[in-house]
Amino acid sequence: MRLGVTIDYSDDFLVAAGETVEFERAGAQVVAVSEAYSFDAVSRLGYLAAVTSTITLMSAILPIYSRTPTLIAMTAAGLDSVSGGRFELGLGSSGAQVIEGFHGVPFTAPLGHLRETVEICRSVWRRERVVHNGRNYRIPLSADQGTGLGKPLKLINEPVRAGIPISIAALTPRAVAQTAEIADGWLPLFYHPEFAAAAWGEALADGQAKRDAALGPLDTIVAVPLYIGDHTDRMLDAYRQRIALYVGGMGARGANFYNDLAIRYGYADEAERVQELYLAGEKSAAAAAVPDDLVRATALIGNESHVRDRLAAFAESGVTTLLAQPLAPTGPTRIESIEALRGLLPQS
């Protein structure tokens, strides 16, 4: 299992960047940078490329609707170049609230957009002249949609790698099946090891049955909050509020991927109640309604024995990359928590 850390879109980036250098020294193998309607992840990843030397840099995630597929490919190739071949591209569709509300772009056919984006990126990195006639993207643009002057072009520069790893954030069964078919890695959120097979097992099997063997095994990349110690109530409460935000407020009724996931985990009544309270503005009550098991099972928050047991559960369920978000209150204690976590990882 690879050990990584994650930089949230709301973190103080300069502090997080300085700590990333220390995490690298402490044995972290991956750093993932998130993006929402926030500062962009790309500029931050470029900065990290300059101050680190061995750690893998990952976008987790770049939304596809706010960038053309060829721009995504160019960006990934550029980050791979400035980092000496250390970049992994994490992609996702985001949701209608952000895509239409912040970017002003229609949120349509997310699976089709993702599949075509992956196809176009890989073509660009192979330095092929890009010709793509899909439902969602046409390259070059046809004469009836533009001037008719476009012609097939290939990337000017020689990429460091012709195959940059691509991971996709996916939660719904159809999206997970497609990810298992076409991507190098899968980025689920609020991953519950004991219920993952029930939520996604069939979808993963369907996608892997169509998977090109050349892609190799699917890398299951899971992000978790991390705190090793006693007196964890404050840490658990903060994480409980984050789950309530997603399950209750990320999307509308009937259009919330995270609420649907909680239902597939078996928390149908609780998910309905969290959403009802959150959308009514009762955020504290919504957080209190989040099932305790969902909070504890999807995190690494507890004493050393508890964390070791949860790590074993993650490994047994198929997790291959763990991205920790240290919650300790100071920089030195956050570094110590990563060092401690490295020592607790199951040995393969």
Which terms would index this structure?
348 residues, alpha/beta, 8-stranded parallel β-barrel, two-stranded antiparallel sheet, 15% strand, globular
Structure description:
This protein is α/β, with parallel strands linked by helices and 348 residues long. It contains 14 helices and twelve strands. The strands form two sheets. An eight-stranded parallel β-barrel has the order 1-2-3-5-8-9-10-12, surrounded by five helices. It has a two-stranded antiparallel sheet with strand order 6-7. It is globular and about 65 Å long. It starts with a strand and ends with a helix.
Helix content: 40-55%
Largest sheet: 8 strands, parallel, barrel
**Low-pLDDT segments:** none
Lateral arrangement of strands in the main beta sheet? 1-2-3-5-8-9-10-12
Mean pLDDT: 96
Specify the overall morphology. globular
Report how far apart the termini are: 8 Å
Number of helices: 14
Order of helices and strands: EHEHEEHEHHEEEHEHEHHHHHEHEH
Briefly note the structural class of the backbone: alpha/beta
Cα-atom Rg, whole angstroms? 20 Å
Q: Total number of β-strand segments?
A: 12
Approximate strand percentage: 5-15%
